[in-house]
Design goal:
Elements: H1 3-46, H2 54-61, H3 65-77, E1 81-84, E2 89-92, H4 94-101, H5 109-124, E3 127-134, E4 137-144, E5 160-162, H6 167-174, H7 178-188, H8 200-213, E6 226-234, E7 240-249, H9 255-275, H10 286-290
Antiparallel strand pairs: 1-2, 3-4, 3-7, 4-5, 6-7
Protein backbone atom coordinates (compact mmCIF):
# COMPACT_ATOMS: atom_id res chain seq x y z
CA UNK A 1 0.00 0.00 0.00
CA UNK A 2 2.79 2.43 0.87
CA UNK A 3 5.01 1.55 -2.05
CA UNK A 4 2.97 3.42 -4.63
CA UNK A 5 3.65 6.92 -3.26
CA UNK A 6 7.32 6.07 -2.88
CA UNK A 7 7.51 4.80 -6.44
CA UNK A 8 5.52 7.78 -7.65
CA UNK A 9 7.84 10.27 -5.96
CA UNK A 10 10.86 8.34 -7.20
CA UNK A 11 9.55 8.60 -10.75
CA UNK A 12 9.07 12.36 -10.28
CA UNK A 13 12.58 12.67 -8.87
CA UNK A 14 14.19 10.83 -11.78
CA UNK A 15 12.06 12.76 -14.25
CA UNK A 16 13.37 15.96 -12.67
CA UNK A 17 16.92 14.72 -12.93
CA UNK A 18 16.41 13.85 -16.58
CA UNK A 19 14.96 17.31 -17.19
CA UNK A 20 17.92 18.99 -15.52
CA UNK A 21 20.29 16.80 -17.50
CA UNK A 22 18.51 17.76 -20.74
CA UNK A 23 18.72 21.47 -19.88
CA UNK A 24 22.39 21.13 -18.91
CA UNK A 25 23.21 19.37 -22.18
CA UNK A 26 21.46 22.12 -24.12
CA UNK A 27 23.35 24.78 -22.19
CA UNK A 28 26.64 22.97 -22.75
CA UNK A 29 25.90 22.60 -26.47
CA UNK A 30 24.98 26.29 -26.67
CA UNK A 31 28.17 27.32 -24.85
CA UNK A 32 30.22 25.08 -27.10
CA UNK A 33 28.62 26.52 -30.24
CA UNK A 34 29.22 30.06 -29.00
CA UNK A 35 32.86 29.27 -28.33
CA UNK A 36 33.26 27.82 -31.82
CA UNK A 37 31.68 30.88 -33.42
CA UNK A 38 34.00 33.27 -31.59
CA UNK A 39 36.98 31.05 -32.36
CA UNK A 40 36.15 31.40 -36.06
CA UNK A 41 35.78 35.17 -35.80
CA UNK A 42 39.10 35.49 -33.96
CA UNK A 43 40.82 33.26 -36.53
CA UNK A 44 39.50 35.46 -39.34
CA UNK A 45 40.68 38.59 -37.53
CA UNK A 46 44.20 37.16 -37.28
CA UNK A 47 44.26 35.93 -40.87
CA UNK A 48 45.38 37.63 -44.04
CA UNK A 49 43.53 40.72 -45.24
CA UNK A 50 42.14 38.86 -48.26
CA UNK A 51 40.59 36.26 -45.94
CA UNK A 52 41.02 32.52 -45.35
CA UNK A 53 39.96 29.34 -47.10
CA UNK A 54 37.65 26.82 -45.44
CA UNK A 55 40.37 24.19 -44.93
CA UNK A 56 42.68 26.75 -43.27
CA UNK A 57 39.92 28.02 -41.00
CA UNK A 58 38.95 24.49 -39.99
CA UNK A 59 42.56 23.73 -39.13
CA UNK A 60 42.96 27.01 -37.23
CA UNK A 61 40.00 26.30 -34.93
CA UNK A 62 40.48 22.50 -34.86
CA UNK A 63 37.02 21.66 -36.19
CA UNK A 64 35.82 19.33 -38.94
CA UNK A 65 35.27 21.06 -42.27
CA UNK A 66 31.48 20.33 -42.35
CA UNK A 67 31.07 21.91 -38.89
CA UNK A 68 33.19 24.90 -39.87
CA UNK A 69 31.24 25.30 -43.11
CA UNK A 70 27.90 25.21 -41.26
CA UNK A 71 29.00 27.81 -38.70
CA UNK A 72 30.40 30.08 -41.40
CA UNK A 73 27.15 30.02 -43.34
CA UNK A 74 25.25 30.91 -40.18
CA UNK A 75 27.57 33.89 -39.70
CA UNK A 76 27.16 34.85 -43.36
CA UNK A 77 23.38 34.88 -42.95
CA UNK A 78 23.84 37.48 -40.17
CA UNK A 79 26.30 39.58 -42.18
CA UNK A 80 29.17 38.84 -39.79
CA UNK A 81 31.21 36.98 -42.39
CA UNK A 82 31.57 37.48 -46.15
CA UNK A 83 32.56 34.93 -48.80
CA UNK A 84 34.29 35.60 -52.09
CA UNK A 85 33.15 32.85 -54.49
CA UNK A 86 36.00 33.66 -56.89
CA UNK A 87 38.84 33.15 -54.42
CA UNK A 88 36.83 30.98 -52.00
CA UNK A 89 38.08 33.13 -49.13
CA UNK A 90 36.05 34.01 -46.05
CA UNK A 91 36.58 37.33 -44.27
CA UNK A 92 34.94 39.41 -41.56
CA UNK A 93 31.73 41.12 -42.71
CA UNK A 94 30.78 44.77 -42.53
CA UNK A 95 27.97 44.10 -40.07
CA UNK A 96 30.55 43.01 -37.51
CA UNK A 97 32.33 46.35 -37.84
CA UNK A 98 29.02 48.18 -37.41
CA UNK A 99 28.55 46.40 -34.08
CA UNK A 100 32.20 46.96 -33.10
CA UNK A 101 31.84 50.70 -33.71
CA UNK A 102 29.23 50.80 -30.95
CA UNK A 103 31.36 48.87 -28.49
CA UNK A 104 34.21 49.90 -26.24
CA UNK A 105 34.49 53.06 -24.20
CA UNK A 106 31.67 55.59 -24.68
CA UNK A 107 34.22 58.34 -24.04
CA UNK A 108 36.36 59.88 -26.77
CA UNK A 109 40.10 60.49 -26.64
CA UNK A 110 39.75 63.95 -25.15
CA UNK A 111 37.34 62.76 -22.43
CA UNK A 112 39.66 59.90 -21.50
CA UNK A 113 42.80 62.04 -21.59
CA UNK A 114 41.55 65.10 -19.69
CA UNK A 115 41.98 63.67 -16.15
CA UNK A 116 45.50 62.53 -17.07
CA UNK A 117 46.45 66.05 -18.20
CA UNK A 118 45.21 67.52 -14.94
CA UNK A 119 47.04 64.91 -12.85
CA UNK A 120 50.29 65.47 -14.72
CA UNK A 121 50.12 69.26 -14.44
CA UNK A 122 49.39 68.96 -10.70
CA UNK A 123 52.26 66.52 -10.17
CA UNK A 124 54.85 68.25 -12.38
CA UNK A 125 53.85 71.89 -12.43
CA UNK A 126 54.19 71.89 -16.23
CA UNK A 127 52.00 72.45 -19.26
CA UNK A 128 50.86 69.12 -20.68
CA UNK A 129 49.55 68.46 -24.20
CA UNK A 130 47.38 65.75 -25.74
CA UNK A 131 48.23 65.36 -29.43
CA UNK A 132 46.60 63.10 -32.02
CA UNK A 133 47.88 62.04 -35.42
CA UNK A 134 46.19 63.58 -38.45
CA UNK A 135 47.80 62.24 -41.62
CA UNK A 136 51.29 63.76 -41.89
CA UNK A 137 50.71 66.06 -38.90
CA UNK A 138 49.86 66.02 -35.22
CA UNK A 139 47.04 68.15 -33.83
CA UNK A 140 46.69 69.40 -30.27
CA UNK A 141 43.24 68.30 -29.05
CA UNK A 142 43.70 69.36 -25.41
CA UNK A 143 46.17 70.94 -23.01
CA UNK A 144 46.48 71.68 -19.32
CA UNK A 145 48.41 74.88 -18.62
CA UNK A 146 51.10 75.01 -15.97
CA UNK A 147 52.23 78.12 -14.08
CA UNK A 148 55.12 78.95 -16.45
CA UNK A 149 54.56 80.77 -19.75
CA UNK A 150 55.92 78.67 -22.60
CA UNK A 151 56.10 78.76 -26.39
CA UNK A 152 55.44 75.69 -28.51
CA UNK A 153 55.07 74.69 -32.15
CA UNK A 154 51.37 73.93 -31.72
CA UNK A 155 50.37 76.83 -29.48
CA UNK A 156 46.86 76.28 -28.16
CA UNK A 157 44.22 73.62 -28.78
CA UNK A 158 43.75 73.12 -32.52
CA UNK A 159 47.38 73.88 -33.36
CA UNK A 160 49.12 71.60 -35.86
CA UNK A 161 52.73 70.51 -36.25
CA UNK A 162 54.43 68.20 -38.77
CA UNK A 163 55.15 64.67 -37.59
CA UNK A 164 58.79 64.63 -36.54
CA UNK A 165 58.89 68.22 -35.28
CA UNK A 166 58.63 68.60 -31.51
CA UNK A 167 58.54 65.89 -28.87
CA UNK A 168 54.92 64.72 -29.20
CA UNK A 169 55.02 64.60 -33.01
CA UNK A 170 58.35 62.78 -32.94
CA UNK A 171 57.00 60.25 -30.42
CA UNK A 172 54.10 59.51 -32.77
CA UNK A 173 56.34 59.21 -35.84
CA UNK A 174 58.80 56.90 -34.08
CA UNK A 175 56.07 54.40 -33.21
CA UNK A 176 54.41 54.15 -36.61
CA UNK A 177 54.96 51.13 -38.88
CA UNK A 178 58.18 51.43 -40.89
CA UNK A 179 56.42 51.85 -44.24
CA UNK A 180 54.33 54.69 -42.87
CA UNK A 181 57.43 56.33 -41.42
CA UNK A 182 59.02 56.25 -44.86
CA UNK A 183 55.99 57.97 -46.40
CA UNK A 184 55.86 60.61 -43.68
CA UNK A 185 59.57 61.39 -44.01
CA UNK A 186 59.31 61.60 -47.80
CA UNK A 187 56.35 63.97 -47.58
CA UNK A 188 57.47 66.11 -44.63
CA UNK A 189 61.13 66.68 -45.44
CA UNK A 190 60.41 69.34 -48.10
CA UNK A 191 58.09 71.04 -45.61
CA UNK A 192 60.89 71.19 -43.04
CA UNK A 193 63.29 73.26 -45.13
CA UNK A 194 62.95 76.24 -42.82
CA UNK A 195 64.23 74.09 -39.94
CA UNK A 196 67.88 73.66 -40.86
CA UNK A 197 68.46 70.99 -38.20
CA UNK A 198 66.25 68.52 -40.05
CA UNK A 199 67.43 66.19 -42.78
CA UNK A 200 66.69 62.53 -43.49
CA UNK A 201 69.72 61.30 -41.59
CA UNK A 202 68.74 63.28 -38.51
CA UNK A 203 65.12 62.10 -38.63
CA UNK A 204 65.97 58.42 -38.99
CA UNK A 205 68.59 58.57 -36.24
CA UNK A 206 66.14 60.33 -33.94
CA UNK A 207 63.41 57.79 -34.70
CA UNK A 208 65.76 54.95 -33.70
CA UNK A 209 66.81 56.76 -30.52
CA UNK A 210 63.21 57.51 -29.49
CA UNK A 211 62.08 53.92 -30.09
CA UNK A 212 64.97 52.72 -27.94
CA UNK A 213 64.16 55.16 -25.10
CA UNK A 214 60.39 54.90 -25.36
CA UNK A 215 60.07 58.69 -25.37
CA UNK A 216 61.20 61.79 -27.27
CA UNK A 217 63.24 64.42 -25.45
CA UNK A 218 65.15 66.04 -28.29
CA UNK A 219 64.59 69.16 -30.39
CA UNK A 220 65.84 71.45 -27.64
CA UNK A 221 66.96 74.73 -29.18
CA UNK A 222 64.44 74.86 -32.04
CA UNK A 223 62.52 77.35 -29.92
CA UNK A 224 65.10 79.22 -27.82
CA UNK A 225 64.84 78.47 -24.11
CA UNK A 226 62.12 75.83 -24.60
CA UNK A 227 62.32 72.04 -24.21
CA UNK A 228 59.97 69.15 -23.63
CA UNK A 229 59.30 65.42 -23.55
CA UNK A 230 56.72 63.29 -25.35
CA UNK A 231 55.53 59.68 -25.13
CA UNK A 232 53.33 57.82 -27.62
CA UNK A 233 49.81 56.61 -26.93
CA UNK A 234 49.56 53.23 -28.63
CA UNK A 235 46.47 51.65 -30.16
CA UNK A 236 45.62 47.96 -29.84
CA UNK A 237 47.92 47.10 -32.75
CA UNK A 238 50.90 48.69 -30.99
CA UNK A 239 51.17 51.66 -33.36
CA UNK A 240 51.04 55.28 -32.18
CA UNK A 241 47.74 57.10 -32.59
CA UNK A 242 48.39 60.01 -30.24
CA UNK A 243 50.89 61.34 -27.70
CA UNK A 244 51.23 63.02 -24.32
CA UNK A 245 53.89 65.69 -23.96
CA UNK A 246 55.26 68.18 -21.47
CA UNK A 247 56.42 71.64 -22.55
CA UNK A 248 58.79 73.53 -20.29
CA UNK A 249 61.98 75.58 -20.16
CA UNK A 250 65.39 74.09 -20.85
CA UNK A 251 66.66 74.67 -17.30
CA UNK A 252 63.83 72.55 -15.85
CA UNK A 253 64.24 69.61 -18.24
CA UNK A 254 67.34 68.02 -16.72
CA UNK A 255 68.29 64.40 -17.57
CA UNK A 256 67.38 63.23 -14.06
CA UNK A 257 63.99 64.96 -14.10
CA UNK A 258 63.30 63.76 -17.64
CA UNK A 259 63.37 60.15 -16.45
CA UNK A 260 60.77 60.90 -13.79
CA UNK A 261 58.59 62.79 -16.28
CA UNK A 262 58.90 59.99 -18.83
CA UNK A 263 57.77 57.37 -16.31
CA UNK A 264 54.73 59.44 -15.31
CA UNK A 265 53.75 60.12 -18.93
CA UNK A 266 54.23 56.48 -19.93
CA UNK A 267 51.94 55.32 -17.13
CA UNK A 268 49.19 57.72 -18.12
CA UNK A 269 49.65 56.98 -21.84
CA UNK A 270 49.30 53.24 -21.21
CA UNK A 271 46.03 53.76 -19.32
CA UNK A 272 44.65 56.01 -22.06
CA UNK A 273 45.65 53.53 -24.79
CA UNK A 274 43.95 50.65 -22.99
CA UNK A 275 40.65 52.58 -22.85
CA UNK A 276 40.61 53.87 -26.42
CA UNK A 277 37.79 52.90 -28.73
CA UNK A 278 39.48 52.18 -32.09
CA UNK A 279 36.37 53.58 -33.82
CA UNK A 280 36.60 56.91 -31.96
CA UNK A 281 36.09 59.67 -34.58
CA UNK A 282 38.76 61.75 -32.81
CA UNK A 283 41.41 59.26 -33.97
CA UNK A 284 40.45 59.88 -37.60
CA UNK A 285 39.10 63.43 -37.42
CA UNK A 286 40.83 65.39 -34.61
CA UNK A 287 38.40 68.25 -35.17
CA UNK A 288 35.67 66.03 -33.75
CA UNK A 289 37.52 65.92 -30.43
CA UNK A 290 38.33 69.63 -30.45
CA UNK A 291 34.69 70.57 -31.01
CA UNK A 292 33.65 68.22 -28.21
Amino acid sequence: MCTFPVQFHSMKFYASLNGISFIWRNMADSTSATGRIFALLRALSRGERQGMRLKDLAAAVDLPRPTTHRLLHGLMAEGMVEHDPRTKHYRLGLELFVLAAKAGSPLNLRDIGRPALLRLTAALGETVFLMVRNGFDAVCVDRSAGPLPIRTFTGDVGGTVMLGVGQAAMAILAFLPEREQDEVIRYNLPRMRALSAFDEGFLRAEIARVRDLGYADGAAGLIPGMAGLGVPILGRDGDAVAALSVGSTTDRMTPERNKVIADLLKREAAEIGARLNPFDPALRRPGAAIMG
